[in-house]
Description:
The chain contains 8 helices and no strands. The chain is an all-alpha fold. The mean pLDDT is 90. Calcium ion binds at residues 119, 121, 123, 125, 127, 130, 137. The site of calcium ion has 7 residues, from helix 6.
Amino acid sequence: MLNTFLLLLTFLIAGSSFAYPEFQRFSQNNSGRPINCAMCHANGDGPEGASRGQIGSLTPDELNKLNAARSAFAPGVPIQSPILNAFGNNIITVIGKTKFLELRAHPEQLAEVYGYQSDLDSDGIADAQEYLEGTHTLNNVHGNPMKLFLHNLKTFRLHVILIVLATIAGFYGFSHLLNGFAASSNTKSSVERYP
Ligand SMILES: [Ca+2]
């Protein structure tokens, strides 16, 4: 219990070192979109405080996870920091804490260093691209509209093809039905005219 208290006290004293607004500012300036702490953090108001996903609310187990995440200096170490969201955790996992701290002076390089392989929300737009464009990496309906449209078109192309074929078949059948009515009507008129 005392250890937990001391760990929490250490984190609270270190408070300001949990937030790295350089990346948020860059994304906002680069995209022109408003960005809040939810870009990387579990809580949209940032890591300091006592609400869910903030340091003051963490359980002993979560404090241990936070401590482990803060020590993940080398890349390739999976972390589960309770104050970060999946994108924040993946950044540290992929590039390591040391490189991440270096990039504070060059937040524009984060996308290249992180790479374009990961697409956490599977919307067809890489996390790194969403960082540059100021859209949310964990929301699959938040992204460049044309890119989302093309991705959905590709994903549901079979459905689109079936709908187009069904529509054509429907028009074809309706057209023949009208022709049938017309032919029937003409035949009836002829019979009435020449009984
Ligand atoms: Ca994405």
